[in-house]
Specification:
- There is one protein chain.
- The chain has 302 residues and is an alpha/beta fold.
- The protein has a single domain, classed as 3-Layer(aba) Sandwich (Rossmann fold).
- The protein contains 13 helices and nine strands.
């Protein structure tokens, strides 16, 4: 008998054990939308947006740190997680309209947006096309600028295989793609995603949400240089040393196109810095959103 946990043990419950939060659903223009919420509605609203094939648990290590400062809401975007999955196109404007509907359902006309991967792409689209709705913007290993066929093919293959056969092995492979340290993928995280992917009909939805991995569809949704140049919201671009979708140099390109944007690279980290390097991410993220100095934060560049 031992009190020593297995090496590398972690769970979403342990991430949230000191956090007052709730899980619930809201109606966003008729789409039943699941969310995780921490903090209270007297504070500035912060909406957290996950990546393609993802879900709100991508932010389980961030809710507690942010709750004292912000009304923090991580959603399952339309077609994802436990949110409703209508038969729509699942292009960037479709996600953007859903996020706007979530804001309205929360009683707000604007929010601070922080998006990872697909979530960053959606947040960028909103900052371009609905500037009044975006108070501050964080782009975290964000999509929308690059189109690497080999990366797109791998994401599509791993995602569709995992949805068609939501076994532990396939779900783990999809999650390990996101991480620099593969041990970051805990059994708890695998089971959380496996349950989502095992929903009846989810394989058909995955085929639809993978449309952005097809080059023609991707290109008509991509953000242009002129659009990045037009972003007015204060912006922080976060990248990582080992992002599997794009290099730090490509992240820097995005930051340079957005007027006044700050840029940082988190080392020894993959596609989920908010999870894999939560302490560094939270420190920089909160400081930026609160308008505090970023000087001296690890990885912060001008």
């Amino acid at each position: 008998m031992t009190n020593v946990p297995p090496s590398g043990f972690s769970s979403i419950w342990s991430d949230l054990r000191n956090t007052a939060f709730k899980q619930d659903f809201l109606e966003a223009d008729g789409v039943r939308t699941r969310y995780l919420m921490a903090g209270d509605d007297t504070k500035p609203l912060l909406i957290l947006l996950h990546g393609v094939g993802g879900h709100a648990e991508a932010y389980s290590r961030n809710l507690g740190a942010h709750a004292p400062h912000f009304w923090t809401v991580a959603i399952d975007m339309v077609g994802h997680g436990w949110t409703e999955k209508p038969e729509i196109d699942y292009e960037i404007p479709d996600y953007g309209k859903h996020v706007l509907a979530v804001m309205r359902a929360l009683g707000r006309d604007s929010a601070m947006l922080s998006g990872e991967s697909l979530g960053g792409w959606v947040a960028t689209w909103l900052a371009v096309h609905h500037a009044q709705a975006v108070e501050k913007l964080v782009l975290n290993t964000a999509g929308g600028w690059t189109a690497h066929p080999e990366v797109m093919a791998r994401i599509k293959k791993l995602s569709i295989e995992a949805a068609l056969d939501p076994s532990w092995e396939r779900i783990r492979a999809r999650l390990e793609f996101l991480m620099y340290d593969k041990a970051s993928v805990s059994d708890d995280l695998v089971e959380t995603r496996r349950a989502i992917y095992a929903q009846p009909g989810f394989a058909d939805t995955m085929q639809r949400i993978m449309c952005l991995q097809d080059m023609n569809t991707r290109r008509r949704n991509m953000i242009t240089e002129a659009q990045y140049n037009a972003i007015k919201a204060p912006t922080l671009v976060i990248w990582t040393s080992h992002d599997p979708t794009a290099t730090p140099a490509e992240g820097l390109q995005i930051a340079k196109m957005i007027p006044g944007a700050r840029y940082m690279v988190i080392n020894e980290c993959g596609h989920w810095p908010q999870y894999e390097k939560a302490a560094v991410f939270n420190k920089a993220h909160i400081a930026f959103l609160r308008g505090e100095s970023l000087d001296g934060i690890e990885g912060m560049l001008s």
